């Protein structure tokens, strides 16, 4: 996150502002899903292109394989993201239901868990008992405390499985399409198409890394180069794999 000035921090920590902020539910964010989708989309399509070029296939094959992988893998990633976020929701809800049931069946046992949790934090005697009493008077607070302290389920914005899946899919398709665009220019020789595709993929990798760093106030040049190197390594492995297999099996192109 971008660092705030001292004046901004002072205003943000006014008691009225704090009260209003804490009353609002945390907002879910899909930045990480979009970043992951964009990087994977570019890696997927450019790796397919690199493998096709390395194997000596014509541009039409690279284009067909690239778009086929783009759509299939983009959909697969979106589904995986949806299921992952849905599983997190269901897991948290199952733990909440379990704690609710335990409070109904054996409330004193659950009170003792609260007591020992805060005793381990250094509270004792009357202060400890006061904490236990306050928490256990509010059923929702009681359950929330058990989720956080016993199960490590922190109160965050509820994940939106559909939103996360959509962000992943859109970023995957938009960024993943870029390395394929030069192969639509059929008038260009394949070496030029591949060169332009390489440049576009490199730009995409660098921009994704830079954007991620700007959002979280990290050194953007370093992050851009790191993402570029990671994506470039994947593409290089695909290219040389295609080239080696072509040599091993004596493929002369289609």
UniProtKB/TrEMBL annotation:
Transmembrane segment boundaries: 164-188, 194-215, 227-245
Keyword ATP-binding: no
A molecular function GO annotation: manganese ion transmembrane transporter activity
Primary location: membrane
Keyword annotations from UniProtKB, A to Z: Membrane, Transmembrane, Transmembrane helix
Organism encoding this protein: Photobacterium chitinilyticum
An annotated GO cellular component: endomembrane system
GO biological process: intracellular manganese ion homeostasis
Localization annotation: Endomembrane system
Topological relation to the membrane, as annotated: Multi-pass membrane protein
Highest rank taxon of the organism: Bacteria
Protein known as: VIT family protein
Pfam families, alphabetized: VIT1 (PF01988)
